[in-house]
C-alpha cells in the first residue's frame, strides 16, 4: 500500500485534536447532510426513491467517510478491499441509469462538505495540518474516483452489451419471420406494426484513410455517430445491425405505404443526416412492410442498394419506385440473358465497358462522361464509335440508347460479369 506519511506517525492536529478524532464522531450526521445535498443539487439523485437515499446511498457515504477517517489516523491510503462498497454502489447507479458525471460530482461534493466540517475547527496555527489534510483528501479522492469510475463503466458496458444482444434478438426474429414479442420484452422495446427497412452502404470518413490516424478508431467513432442518429430518429425503438461499412436498420412506422409516400422526405432526410454524421458518401436502399413481412422488405432494400451501387447512382436514399426499370431488368430470366448477350463482345475490353458505364451514368453526355474517365471528350467519341461497331448498337443514336442502357444493366447484373461498384 502507498503511504501518505510514515506509518505510525500521528494524524494531523486540527484545533488541538487529531483530525480523525474531530471528524469521526460527525460521520452519521455528515452522511445525512451529504445525501440531502446530493438530492438538492442533482436531479438524478432527487428522483431516486427516498428509501434508497436513506438506506444504500447513506450507508455508502458513511463508509466513504470512515475510509477517510481511517486514512487520517493511519496515514495509509485505502486498499482495494476498502473500496468494495463504493464500487458496488457505482455499479448499482449504472444499472439505475444515474449518469457517471452525477456520481462523480456527488463524491466531490461530499468530500467538500466533509472537509468544511473538519476545517471549521482549524485556527491560524493549523496551517501545516490543513495542508496535510487536504493532500491526504486529494490522494484518497483520486483512488476513490478511479475505482468508482471503473466499476461504473464496467457495469454500464455489461448492461449495454446485454441490451444490444436483446435488440439483436428482436432484429433477428423479425428478419426470420418469427414473433418478436418475447425478445422485445427482454430488450425493452415495443414491437411496431410495421417497419421501414434501410440497407446502408457507408463510405469511409476522411480520418479512416488519413496518414498518422488510427483508421479503426475513426471507423468506430463514425459508427457510433451513425447509430446515435438512427436511435434518435427512431426514439430509441429502432433496431440495427451495423458496422463501419454499413448494414441494416429497422425503423418503426405505423403504415408502410405511407412511410414510402408522404413520409418519404423524413426517411430521405434521415439518410442525409447519416451522411453528415458519417462524413462520407451514404447510399441506402429503402423498403417498408408490416412486421410479419420484414424479411421480404429487407431483401428488397438490399436489392435496391445493389442496383444503386452497380448503376453508379449518386449517394442518397432510394425506394423501388426510383429504380423500377433497373430493378426489373436485374431479375433473372430469358430477357435479361438476351440483353446481356448484346454486350458479350465487350467482355474482353474493360475500357470500353467502363466508358459505356460512364456515358450512361452521365445521361449520355460525352462531355460529362470524360471527367469521370479522366480522358478528353474526343477519346470518349472514339471509344463510343468502337462500341457501336462491335455491338451493332450506336451510342450516339437516340433510338438505340434505351436498348443499350437496358443491355448494360442486364450485363452488369449477370453474376459472372458483375462489377464491384458503378462509376463515380
Approximate strand percentage: 5-15%
In the CATH scheme, the class of the largest domain would be Mainly Alpha
- Overall structural class, as computed from helix and strand content, comes to alpha+beta
* Tally of individual domains: 3
Question: What can be said about the biggest beta sheet?
Answer: 5 strands, mixed
Proportion in helices:
55-70%
Describe the protein.
This protein has about 425 residues and is an alpha+beta fold. The protein folds into 3 domains: about 150 residues, Orthogonal Bundle (Globin-like), CATH 1.10.490; about 130 residues, 2-Layer Sandwich (Alpha-Beta Plaits); about 90 residues, Arc Repressor Mutant, subunit A, CATH 1.10.10. The chain contains 19 helices and 7 strands. It has a 5-stranded mixed sheet with strand order 4-5-3-6-7. A two-stranded antiparallel ribbon has the order 1-2. The longest helix has about 50 residues. It is elongated and about 105 Å long.
Map the helices and strands.
Layout: E1 13-14, E2 17-18, H1 19-23, H2 27-41, H3 43-46, H4 50-74, H5 84-96, H6 100-119, H7 127-175, H8 181-187, E3 194-202, H9 206-209, H10 215-233, E4 239-243, E5 246-253, H11 256-259, H12 264-278, E6 282-290, H13 294-310, E7 316-318, H14 324-329, H15 334-341, H16 350-361, H17 366-373, H18 377-391, H19 401-412
Helix pairs in contact: 2-4, 2-6, 5-7, 6-7, 7-8, 10-12, 15-19, 16-17, 16-18, 17-18
Brief write-up:
The protein is of the alpha+beta class and 424 residues long. Helices cover 61% and strands 9% of the residues.
